[in-house]
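Dear H.,

Thanks for agreeing to be a second pair of eyes. The structure we're designing against is below in token form, covering all 168 positions.
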């Protein structure tokens, strides 16, 4: 059952080039607030995403997520850390930049955004992956057909980061 907050929220999935400059800047601010990314080239990486997801409650942006198209050096780093039997060009998309404002957490917002994003990906082909140390995110991935691969590792921001992937 959806929470009252989620029932009264509006969710939008957009390609970055369909977003206004204001939407891109608001998304950028939320990613920074999440605190788990390199700020160098961040706006360009956001604009390179396949899709951006926005959740608004009472006209305030309270949650975001995306389908990223990661670059080669990032992919090679993940492959190395997780000890994956993959080449960087095997991996096409990543669920990432997920952030929900603290006072709105535990309302299913992140889950709903990611489910909407995965629906948008149904006509794409390739491998979509995600890395997370958060148990609820790991459960979401497993529940949506993602498989744990490789070894867990300690990242810059989290201990016990685990890699999951799914063929689309």
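And this is the sequence the design step returned. I haven't edited it by hand at all.
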């Amino acid at each position: 059952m959806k929470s009252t907050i989620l029932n009264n929220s509006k969710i939008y999935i957009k390609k970055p080039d369909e977003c206004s400059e204001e939407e891109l800047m608001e998304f950028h601010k939320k990613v920074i607030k999440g605190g788990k990314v390199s700020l160098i080239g961040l706006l360009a990486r956001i604009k390179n995403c396949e899709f951006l997801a926005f959740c608004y409650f009472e006209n305030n942006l309270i949650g975001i997520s995306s389908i990223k198209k990661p670059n080669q050096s990032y992919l090679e780093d993940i492959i190395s850390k997780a000890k994956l039997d993959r080449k960087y060009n095997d991996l096409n998309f990543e669920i990432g930049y997920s952030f929900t404002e603290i006072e709105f957490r535990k309302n299913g917002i992140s889950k709903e955004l990611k489910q909407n994003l995965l629906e948008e990906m149904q006509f794409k082909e390739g491998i979509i992956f995600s890395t997370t140390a958060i148990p609820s995110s790991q459960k979401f991935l497993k529940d949506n057909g993602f498989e744990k691969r490789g070894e867990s590792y300690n990242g810059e921001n989290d201990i016990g980061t685990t890699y999951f992937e799914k063929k689309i």
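Two observations from my side: The mean pLDDT is 95. DSSP finds six helices and seven strands in the chain.

Warmly,
E.
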